[in-house]
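[job 4471] stage=fold_predict status=RUNNING
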Amino acid sequence: MISVETALDQLFALVSPGAVEEVPLAEAHQRVLARSVTTSLTQPPFAASAMDGYAVAASRVTPGARFRVIGEAAAGHGFDGLVAEDYAVRIFTGAPLPEGTDRVVIQEDVTREGDIITLKDTLDEAPYVRPAGVDFQAGMRLDAPRLLGPSDIALLAAMNIARVPVVARPKVALLATGDELVMPGEIPGPDQIIASNSFGLKALVESLGATARLLPIARDNETSLRMAFELAADADLIVTIGGASVGDHDLVGPVAETMGLQRSFYKIAMRPGKPLMAGRMGDAAMIGLPGNPVSAMVCGHVFLAPVIRAMLGLPARAAPRYQARLGADIAANGPREHYMGAILNGDTITAQPRQDSALLSVLAASNALLIRPVGDGPRRAGETVDYIPL
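[job 4471] inference complete, writing structure tokens
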């Protein structure tokens, strides 16, 4: 068995970022920026008013000063002309400051009678001016790689980037195996169960930015498995679920090897999820997950998610770990790193009382995986432990 860290290193060696494609800005949210982009614009392109008020010369601003209003400036409609001392322009937020002015007196600090304004004694000292280029200047760069969120999209729009270079979404083929499986909505026989893992993993994969395709369930025979693998020939990543152990009916590894699988490793020193394998199969990477539902989903968070991020061009690293205080005592851990379903409440984390690789209801009730190192001794409530959020 190899460690989780070693397994991740070998998985990262199997994959690389996809091709670069350009998409319209409106479709770039949650995509990964593939190349740095630079703007030729300055934002704002002019000194602009930050509030509604009156644009005047700052040198003339004192309590009780009087100005004659000679015009108006609004966003998109500036005042054309020079404003001399003792004159003012009514100005609204976002409007360019007229020539000759460098201060905005907010409307709350002014009394107005006809065209004459008088500054109040409670005059605010702030200038309420946004200088040209205060947000960004021509030549500013947004660096890649970067997972683009809503604020990034707004910034790209302001930079006048209409088409965005992004990393192509990895194509992931999900292949559940086993005679015991039927699809949701079907009526299982007396010895069958519903296939759940592939649907949970599809949701995980797609939430990370990849595209996922569910292949037909492969039965526990060579012919069915070969047909399923052939259907996955165009995938960037093939993820099998079940059949990765060494029992008489666990045929995924042997069949894949007859079809060109170059295995990188098999078995991880972790629980749940020990019978995990990986390698390359033609042009695709392959990850063979265990069939127990909790094992498959935990391995999805620990291994599959970091691999997808690496394929999207993001840094190749393990899922971020955080720390919290134990809410209850836990017993000593054994020779495998243990990922325990847990409930995180504020800065306190409590392991679920039942830890079984078949109990999806327990995993669904958890919002974190509490991580126990190999050989970790008993822990008391209040001690600090690592966790991965779910």
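[job 4471] summary: The longest strand covers residues 337-345.
[job 4471] exit 0
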